[in-house]
Amino acid sequence: MVVAEPLGNGGAYLQLTPTPEPITTVTMQRGLLELERFLEPVLVPTPLYWATRNAKG
């Protein structure tokens, strides 16, 4: 389930799951990676969140 809604200030509201989940669940990890890949063309170049997090331990 993905919710994407425009905000009045030119931003967007994005929701990956129907209810809040810990960021450590498989569902959230997959969702965050997919979201980062989807937004990659418009984001400032940075390492993927999980690659950075895993490198830090």
State mean pLDDT (0 to 100 scale): 80
Largest sheet: 2 strands, antiparallel
User: What is the number of helical segments per DSSP (H or I, 4+ residues)?
Assistant: 2
**Percent range of helical residues:** 25-40%
Helix and strand succession?
Answer: EEHH
Uncertain stretches: none
Report the structural category: alpha+beta
Strand order of the largest sheet: 1-2
Task: Note the gap between the termini.
Answer: 29 Å
- Overall outline: flat
Q: Report the radius of gyration as a whole number of Å.
A: 13 Å
How many β-strand stretches? 2
Strand content: 5-15%
How would the blueprint of this fold be written?
Layout: E1 3-6, E2 12-15, H1 26-39, H2 49-56
If you had to describe this structure to a student in words, what would you say it looks like?
The protein has 57 residues and is α+β, with helices and mostly antiparallel strands. It has helices at residues 26-39, 49-56, and strands spanning 3-6, 12-15. The protein is 39% helix and 14% strand. A two-stranded antiparallel sheet has the order 1-2. The longest helix has 14 residues, at 26-39. The radius of gyration is 13 Å and the shape is flat.
